[in-house]
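Reviewer 2 asked us to include a model.

Predict the structure of this chain.
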Amino acid sequence: MNTMLRKSVLGIAGLAFTGGVFAGPVAAHADAHPVDTKPVAVSVQGAQSHIDLNDEQTANAKAIIAATKKAGLPERAAVISIATSLQESKLENLGHLGDANDHDSLGLFQQRPTSGWGTPEQITNPEYSTLAFLKGLKQVDGWESMPLTEAAQTVQVSAYPDAYAQWEQQATDIVAQHWNS
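Predicted model (structure tokens):
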């Protein structure tokens, strides 16, 4: 790898780490106060990805929806949360993956204990990790009407900020299917 490319990659990784260190504690604990907001119609942007969900992934999607309702947030928050989890873990509640792991990232949202998201036990609890993500989302001004990938990236501080958009249609379909069930 040439020097300029290496410096760029290291610089991006450093920014992602620094963002995670500062953004993680922001979303450490979610409080549940009902909000009277109506879903915002947002058009899906870009090419879309789709995976077939197994029973575990479907249960995790339902857990995200339940936590979103518990937090008193609208369907749009569940769509953003599920799209984020589809990108981060394919809706799988991942434990430590050894060398395949991105630092110490865990759970549905690949949150990091060292960035203040919680303990490994908390982060791998679907309700806790979703409420932590949602607390961060609620702190993003205008999240309800901004593009999904921008809202998710502001909370997650990913090295791949545009990757969340590809899951918006599937996340929307999952929420539509399970919100009232």
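The two ends are 51 Å apart (CA to CA). The CA atoms of residues 40 and 145 lie 6 Å apart. We have added this to the supplementary material.
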